[in-house]
Amino acid sequence: MLRLIASLLFLSCAGAAHAIATDPAPGGAYKTDPSHSSLVWSLNHSGLSRYTARFTGVYARLDWKPEKPEQSALTVTIDPLSVRTDFPWAEMGDFDAEIGGGENFLDAQPMTFVSQSIRVTGPNTGVVEGLLTILGQTHPARLDVTFNGSMAEHPMMGVAKIGFSATGVIRRSDWGLDYGIPELGDEVTFSVETQMVPADFVFP
């Protein structure tokens, strides 16, 4: 009986693996799938913990060249008003609006990142260097990127998909965003998870 159950489990797993097997996604223009993308950031708070929040309005476009990834190009726009802090006391005020739109913070000014160079560092890793604009100031920034794979046809969405993870660190004071330092840490760590679809795909 145990042998039968084990065999059925093996066949089930093998069938599932076969179901998602697919050719890699072709090159071309891609954009973020907002339902499978996130940007989480954190900074030191009073030396006691890392305050953590996220942006939900992250829009990226990638000119993907799978045969020569270093020739790809990336542009990203982040809506500051899409910040989500999960502040627990709404009756005390709209903390998300303060962070995203307040003059001491992001002042409702969109943030952008434009790649300038892409360097392949391993079979599925690379470094993307570019220009990050915050509060109208533009300075270099770096992303350490992992290419998670791609599909020529996603089994649920029926379109090509590419997946990436990325991390980075900036000093917010370099962009004039120095409110609260040192009580609120200067160094901001961020991580990105994203799936991308062809740029002409129309979401429902």
Automatic annotation (TrEMBL):
The keyword Nucleotide-binding does not apply. SUPFAM superfamilies: YceI-like. Pfam families: YceI. It comes from the Bacteria. Residues 1-19 form the signal peptide. Residues 29-197 form the Lipid/polyisoprenoid-binding YceI-like domain. Keywords: Signal. PANTHER family: PROTEIN YCEI. This is Polyisoprenoid-binding protein. It comes from Gemmobacter lanyuensis.
